[in-house]
Amino acid sequence: MCLGKVPMLSTTALHHLHIFIFVLACVHVVFCVLTILFGSARIRQWKLWEDSISKKEQDPEEAQGPKFTHVKDHDFIKSRYLGFGKNSYILGWVHSFFKQFYASVTRSDYTTLRLGFIMTHCRGNPKFDFHKYMMRVLEADFKKVVGISWYLWLFVVIFLCLNVSGWHAYFWIAFIPFILLLAVGTKLEHVIIQLAHEVAEKHVAVQGDLVVRPSDDHFWFNKPKIVLLLIHIILFQNSFELAFFFWIWVQYGFDSCIMGQVGYIIPRLVIGAFVQFLCSYSTLPLYAIVTQMGSSFKREIFEEHIQEGLVGWAKQAKKKAGLRRTANESSHNQVGPKEESPLIQMAKAGSRETAVEENKSGEIVHGTAS
């Protein structure tokens, strides 16, 4: 140790910090798993809707020629476009805010969004299992959500630096995931409303079923991936808040000065439990279906064995292209000044034959003229 200098953290404090990081990682993983399990259980209830739609499509009576129906007679338009204040921009956002707390996704929503996805991305496969596709996408996104990125660790460092006595930073920070969660849920609900408005404003009557047009324009900065990033931040910050509470409780006791007053503790726990519940049963199912309304689809649209086949085919094609490029370069380098390529030899041979024919024709003309 250098003279005149002291360590920023003592050995005891550094040991406690290591324990906190371990607790935070464990709590984050557990909370993410619970969120995915509860959200997936809610989404699996939609499997009944998927099976019902498949049976309806196989019914010969339903397979008859499509009929013209008035747009405003569809249940999707009635629930998302018609009614008091739903046609107003401001009241539409207010309706989206409260909609996330009850019946966030209805049967008409699922049916319409499913058909819009199929007609846009896989028109040639009308029997596409949209529910199974959503579950595969959710499993793939879970691998990203459960991880802890560098910017999340930066947030932890900033919080520990701002945790000054009297500021109650541990209380105010609980509102960050709460506000972000409400904003994400409201935006996802508003995307569905925008899809309904597009159809209702452009068409008076439609032939057959109502079809919406997925587009990235409905999302923040035209990027549906931002929603997944915000959900990642929400789950981590909520895990951090509750992990910090349990760590202080076990490490220093409930009556320690670091824990703070009871009036600040109870709201933190209530907000954390509310965020966990709402994210599991409302926001995550909304995310699973609404983010499929982007302009593109994900590779999980293919079955797992097809994905492996496509990846293997791409690697082989890339390998063959590299070998072909190497062979062309080597053959080009082997052509020296004394050794010419077959194309050049054929061109020179042709020019020599042409010259000989011209000489012969000149001799014939000369002999005739004399």
TrEMBL record:
The keyword Transmembrane applies. The chain crosses the membrane at residues 17-38, 145-165, 171-188, 226-249, 269-290. PROSITE patterns: PROKAR_LIPOPROTEIN. GO terms for biological process: defense response. InterPro entries: Mlo. Residues 350-363 have a biased composition (Basic and acidic residues). Pfam families: Mlo (PF03094). Residues 325-370 are annotated as: Disordered. Keywords: Membrane, Pathogenesis-related protein, Plant defense, Transmembrane, Transmembrane helix. Belongs to the MLO family. This is MLO-like protein.
